[in-house]
Prior knowledge:
α7 (108-121) runs antiparallel to α8 and α7 (108-121) packs across α11. By secondary structure, this protein is mostly helical. The longest helix is centred in the middle third of the chain and has 22 residues, at 61-82. It has helices at residues 3-7, 12-27, 41-56, 61-82, 87-93, 96-103, 108-121, 128-136, 145-156, 163-174, 185-201. The protein has two domains: 3-59, no CATH class; 87-201, no CATH class.
Amino acid sequence: MSSDSNRSFLPPFQAQAELELLHDILQGVETSPYPWNPMEAETTAYFEALEQEVIALGWTDADYAPYVGALSQQLDQAWAELQPASASSLAQFFSGELFHNLTQRIPHRFLETIVQRAQQSVAHNLSMTDQLVMCVQEFLPEWGAEDLAVFARPFAYAMRGPAEENVVEGALQSIRPVAWEELSSIEQARLSLAIARYAIAQLPESES
């Protein structure tokens, strides 16, 4: 059946919502036509009208419960990705001694970014090199993506397993023991990519 035929069965409130959305896109309206502010009087009336349309169509809680559940799961997942990693969760992600060493060499917020981007990158079906670039590029703005990818390739070929921690330890030993801000851009990139490779390796085998 064609998509036009399917559209004839859309509920009136859904069709109206699509029309309003299309109107806003075409007209370039910056403000939403929907009264999302719960403090505004028209908000209650707006949602009461929508509820009456649903009732008139004979929909029950069981009819739209699966859609509500799916939306809730998607929102929970998106929210989890946006939440900063806590010190305790980072400590669990990295081994105790390694975590202590890293916190002395790289800002905590960069560790958070690496872990978050590592978790997100596996959902994009990227190559290992591209995953590494995604993990660190945000706080290495002076590096172009292509140059960073070239620098990341040796780390991408590292084997999974205990050797991953050795990669990080090796990077720590080969880089001057100074504050992050005093490191050269190459040293910052080397350390960041080594940490990113370790972080990706900690994800389930099926994901990375």
